[in-house]
Structure formats: C-alpha cells, structure tokens
Amino acid sequence: MLFNTIVFSTFLFGAVDPQIKVLKEGAGEKVLSYNAPLIRLKEEGRDPIERVVVLDELTPALKLGILGMQKGEIRKIYISSEPGCENPPIFEVEVIYVDATAAAHLASERDNFFLQ
User: Fold this and answer.
1) DSSP code string of 36-88
2) What is the pTM assigned to this prediction?
3) CA–CA separation, 94 vs 64, rounded Å?
4) pLDDT digits (tens, 9 = 90+) for 45-101
5) Nearest 5°: CA angle at 61, between 3 and 79?
6) Dihedral in degrees, nearest 10, Cα atoms 30, 108, 39, 61
7) Residue 106: enclosing H or E segment and its boundaries?
8) 5-115: which CATH topology?
C-alpha cells in the first residue's frame, strides 16, 4: 500500500526526526544506507544542486528523509532541530540514481545505450 504522506515523529539523537511528504512516487530499488545516491537537492530560497551524497556524511534527519527513496521519487523533507522550532529547514529531494558510484552509473549508461 502506497502512502502519499509519510510522517515520522520520534526522536533521534536529541532532535526531531524529519517530517516527510512524498510529492512524486519513484520506482525500482530503494536507497539503502550503503548507497551513494545522485540527488537533486533544493533548500527553500536557494538554487537546486545535483550531487552524489554519502549518506553517513549527512545530518541524521536528512539521511532518514532520503533512506528508502526510489529513482524518480521526490520528497519534501521538513527538519526541525528542536520541538517548536519556528523556521525549520525545508528540502525538496529528488533521487536521480539510487547508487551513483562510477561502476553503477557506467552500467546504467551502457544499458540505456543498448536499449535505444
């Protein structure tokens, strides 16, 4: 069963876990903790950036917001460092590749070439 909105409301490392709203469903494999996904990240009020991220290098809340995403999925992630925080950071995240390591990216490009 798919849910358009997923909200986490437990505590992690003294901070509130992210609230997550799925804007667009994805398909295929899910981002796992050992993946290095290529994402498009847009923080409200800033230009979007595309980059490969190592999940362990992100804040715990942002990492939790990205875990389980699928290729093409777009989520809005609301992060609050403390309960009642007036202006929590809001990120819009899109997964472009679930695992964007060089080998995975090259294999994907090769497969797309032969499918054309």
Assistant:
1) --EEEEEETTS--EEEE--GGGS-HHHHHHHTT-EET-EEEEE--SSTT-SS-
2) 0.71
3) 14
4) 889 999 999 998 888 889 999 999 999 999 999 887 656 667 778 999 999 999 887
5) 80
6) 30
7) helix 102-115
8) Chitinase A; domain 3 (3.10.50)
Q: What tokens were used for 109?
A: 């490009």
Residue type, 89: P
Sorted by where each begins, the domain ranges of the chain are: 5-115
Question: Is 68 exposed, middle or buried (CB count within 10 Å of its CB: 0-12, 13-18, 19+)?
Answer: middle
Amino acid identity at 51: R
What number of residues does the chain have? 116
